Amino acid sequence: MRIKELLELLWETHRGSLLLLGALLTLNILLFVSLGQFIVPTVVEEETRYLKRQTEVRQLLRNQGGNAETPEQLYVLASQDVSKFEQSIPEYRDFTALIEELLVLSNRAHLNITQISYSSEGFKKSPLLKFNLNFSVAGNYEQVKNFIHSLEQSNRLISIKQISLQSVEGDAVKLGLSLETLFWPGSRES
């Protein structure tokens, strides 16, 4: 009898709270049933459809020769490319090594560089320095061709911006070159 009296006392003193608790419990049960019956199957169906379409797109990219890499993989590859690019750019203190390399390459092709003019400027919105170098050499066509080939095979990042070729005495030609290259202005560690 004690439990019945306790429940009656609880009902009389906290009737509003018990009704609210009952309503919330009923609402919770209704939401659980609707979630299990309607919402979860719809989400599963949409997820399955999305995964199927994603697989189709990847297959289509593979068939067309494209890469089906994730954005994260593309970001890592791009970061690696930028790192390789930055490592291939020498510091400004190596500028004389570039001049020396040009002289050695011309000497190997049996050509003679007598004067190199250069100018430098900032490179776009980066800390890099862009150097423009201009010079000319004279020799036969084969020597000039070998010199240009050796420039193209250089490990340095050298862009040939302009080439001019003029005929001079006999079978000799004069090659005018305008090159562009990049340097770090100081030490990379700073």
The biggest beta sheet reads: 4 strands, antiparallel
Give me the CATH superfamily of the largest domain. Answer: Ribosomal protein S6/Translation elongation factor EF1B
CATH architecture descriptor of the largest domain: 2-Layer Sandwich
Content-based structural category:
alpha+beta
Shape summary = elongated
Instruction: State the low-pLDDT regions, or none.
Output: none
Separation of the first and last Cα atoms: 86 Å
* Main β-sheet, spatial strand arrangement: 1-2-4-3
The level of helicity is: 55-70%
CATH topology of the largest domain: Alpha-Beta Plaits
What is the strand content?
Answer: 15-25%
Count of DSSP strands: 4
Rg, Cα atoms, Å? 38 Å
Strand and helix order: HHHHEEHEE
Brief account:
The chain is α+β, with helices and mostly antiparallel strands and 190 residues long. 55% of the residues lie in helices and 22% in strands.
Can you tell me about this structure?
β3 (158-167) and β4 (172-183) form a beta hairpin. This protein has helices at residues 2-13, 15-63, 71-88, 95-108, 141-152, and strands spanning 116-122, 129-140, 158-167, 172-183. It has 2 domains: 2-63; 90-183, 2-Layer Sandwich (Alpha-Beta Plaits), CATH 3.30.70.60. The chain is 55% helix and 22% strand. The protein is an alpha+beta fold and 190 residues long. A 4-stranded antiparallel beta sheet has the order 1-2-4-3. The N and C termini lie far apart (86 Å).
